[in-house]
Design brief:
Largest sheet: 8 strands, parallel, barrel
Radius of gyration: 19 Å
Helix content: 25-40%
Number of strands: 12
Strand content: 15-25%
Oligomer: single chain
Order of helices and strands: EHEHEEHEHHEEEHEHEHHEHEH
Distance between the termini: 33 Å
Shape: globular
Number of helices: 11
Mean pLDDT: 91
Length: 329
């Protein structure tokens, strides 16, 4: 099995039926122990099946705050948070608080939000697409503006937009990481998403591409992002590029297929890396060849900690140089 350098491998939790905090913690600790770069979770209050009565919602940033104190090395974040869920000043404070709690290990993934039924079920307004993009852009301006306001600035930070207003904030939140936690923006849109990412993103996520086994669609999204950077005079190489890969790895074909069945969707399985550690490694290599330097392994069965251990032992060493494995704290 050939080695492939330069890829950060991360775990992205997407529980089929929701989760309790203790289950999230167990998966995060398994991720850390196995040597992965980061543990991320989705920011959802409903599952992929909105009528699933067994789904157990948890708030993304509340649980990340808990993980900040109970893990010691892995980076933590959301892929991606819904800008519709939280006011920008509050979100800037929440993220800065969790960043401090973690010793500077937090990353902010933020998008427009897309799950209309989820918003309706929890009483959260869901504006039309264009307005959601406008709100996302204003949120990023406010969050970065607050984080970047110097200590002791007499005027403070102010912002006047179409959807949000900040009036002379002289006591902005202070993240532990300087100049601020990395910001991840991604999606499949050809125009506004790459343009917003070019202005604000430390990492552009090419998202999950259904049926793109060769990575050609991902390569094109990265190219669009690069052109958006060049259009505003930014060096595209300043930002990382990432991809999402559903994974079902097994030491036998039967074990891999059993893990794939948990995904529940034939469409999702058509995109996933399903097979032996060598086959999963080759799929990650294809994403790297398309330009990804970071890959989020989309994990659906949050109780299958042996799955995490297998990938950590048999895939991770062949993909990238990673931090040493560590014991759970």
């Amino acid at each position: 099995m050939a080695d492939h350098e330069g890829v950060r491998l991360r775990v992205l939790m997407e529980p089929r039926h929701g989760s309790r905090y203790e289950e999230i913690l167990a998966l995060a600790l398994a991720t850390e122990h196995a040597g992965f770069d980061a543990f991320f979770r989705s920011d959802h209050l409903l599952g992929v099946d909105p009528n699933d009565p067994t789904y157990r919602p948890t708030d993304c940033w509340t649980t990340l705050g808990g993980l900040a104190r109970e893990t010691s090395r892995v980076r933590l974040g959301a892929l991606v948070g819904a800008a519709t869920f939280r006011a920008p000043g509050l979100l800037a404070t929440i993220v800065a608080s969790v960043d401090e709690m973690s010793g500077g290990r937090v990353e902010l993934g933020l998008g427009t939000g897309w799950f209309a039924r989820e918003h309706a079920a929890f009483g959260i307004p869901f504006p039309p697409t264009g307005e959601r993009f406008d709100r996302l852009e204003e949120q990023l301006a406010i969050i970065t503006g607050l984080w970047g306001t110097p200590t002791g600035d007499d005027e403070g930070f102010s912002f006047e937009g179409s959807h949000y207003r900040v009036d002379a904030n002289r006591t902005p939140p202070r993240p532990a990481r300087k100049p601020h936690p990395p910001i991840i923006i991604g999606g499949t849109g050809p125009r506004r998403t790459p343009a917003i990412a070019a202005r604000y993103a430390d990492e552009f996520n090419g998202a999950l591409t259904i049926g793109d086994a060769t990575g050609e669609q991902l390569r094109e999204r990265f190219a669009v992002f690069a052109r958006a950077c060049e259009a505003i005079g930014r060096d595209p190489d300043e930002a990382r590029r990432s991809a999402v890969l559903p994974v079902a790895c097994g030491v036998t074909p039967a074990q891999a297929q059993r893990r794939a069945a948990v995904m529940g969707s034939e469409l999702m399985r058509s995109t996933a890396a399903i097979g032996s550690p060598a086959e999963v490694t080759e799929r990650i290599a294809a994403l790297a060849a398309a330009g990804a330097d970071t890959v989020y392994l989309h994990i659906y069965d949050i109780h299958d900690l042996d799955h995490i251990a297998l990938i950590g032992a048999e895939v991770l060493p062949h993909v990238t140089s990673t931090p040493e494995r560590t014991g759970a704290r």
